[in-house]
Amino acid sequence: MNKLEIIREPIEKELNEFKTLFDVSLKSSIPLLNEVLGYIRQKNGKMMRPMLVLLMAKLYGKVNDSTLHAALSLELLHTASLVHDDVVDVSDKRRGQASVNALYDNKVSILVGDYLLATSLRHAAFSQSIALVDLIAKLGQLLSEGEVVQLNSTNDSVFSEDVYFDIIRKKTAALFLASAESGAISVNASSEQIQAAGQIGELIGMAFQIKDDIFDYFDNAELGKPTGNDMMEGKLTLPAIYALNRTNNQEMHNLALRIRSLKATKDEIASFIAFVKQEGGIEYADRVMCGFCDKALALLPVSVDPIVKKALIAYIDFVIDREI
133-149 pLDDT, tens per residue? Predict the structure, then answer.
């Protein structure tokens, strides 16, 4: 069994139920909207966050309708944020495929993102849990805050790990935290169990984003992203921040500011990537990522269903071992 098979083993039935619900939610009687939703439906990935919702629900109880609607609400909110992010970032690719704004236009993308957000809120209500509705509403706030903090950071002349961690905690880790917590909430877990689930989810999310950021330093045909793609959008992540603060290299500092202001050429970005690698930025980010995963593993409860625990261990391992 590979890691994904181990992850899916205890939740295969429930995951299929979720996928059916997900597909039904992405349909409309309006032709253009239905066309765009159909395109989004075809692009759905490994369903990492819904799987975490289901696993956490199984860890503390039994998956129910509330669990499924919470998982769907979170996935739709996540999808809406990605559609909007591609407009903000002027991105024409998403996981190796054309983004919605590239295939259609920004107006369509914004409106479809809004539709997904509204559908997300409906399914939050279908969970019939005020706690889950509140969790998902707060998540929407955090995702927006993360985007604003990231946008504002492009004007900074310093490169701060604290700001970087604040951004990824709000933009990525918050989704994993909410996924883990919602699974626990949906099965009426204790407040201590819900809190522990959230901590595990947040740690996984931090590691997940750092892994994504490491990908930017290498060509990846599966992702459809060339080396330095994030830097072409003015984003400097943990490997770069470490290398810059470690060396105090003024030439590279000035180049990093050019990257942030979208003035750097492809050759300059290639030179900056070589500098980051030479100064150990990738190894440092890898250590930090593994540290988050180790903390998540340590928080897993001892006396639980061994198949579910094995799946969660595989889930955490997959976050740092994945190739895409």
Answer: 999 999 999 999 998 88
Q: Which of 130, 133, 163, 151 is nearest to 244 (CA)?
A: 163
CA angle, residues 37, 73, 128, in degrees to nearest 5: 135
What's the token pair of residue 296? 């998540």
Tell me the one-letter amino acid at 306.
P
CA distance 121 to 182: 14
Q: How far is CA 15 from CA 29, 43, 55, 70, 78, in A?
A: 26, 17, 10, 13, 17
| Whole-number Å distance between alpha carbons of 315 and 309 | 10
Residue 170 DSSP class: I
Residue 220, SS3 per DSSP: strand
Q: For residue 126, give the nearest of 198, 199, 64 by alpha carbon.
A: 64
* Residue 49 and residue 7 in contact, taking contact as beta carbons nearer than 8 Å: no
The 10s digit of each residue's pLDDT in 79-105 is 999 889 888 777 776 666 788 888 888
**Residue 266: both structure tokens together:** 């492809």
Q: Looking at this protein, which amino acid is placed at residue 169?
A: R
How many helices and strands, by DSSP H and E, does the chain display?
A: 17, 2
Locus of tokens 């997904």: 116
Question: pTM of the entire structure?
Answer: 0.94
Q: Which helix (H) or strand (E) holds 94?
A: strand 93-94
Long-range contacts made by residues 295-298, C-beta under 8 angstroms, separation at least 24?
A: 295/203, 296/199, 296/200, 296/203, 296/204, 296/207
Helices (H), the chain: 3-8, 12-25, 31-42, 48-60, 65-88, 100-103, 106-126, 130-153, 161-168, 174-186, 191-215, 229-232, 238-247, 250-260, 266-278, 281-299, 306-321
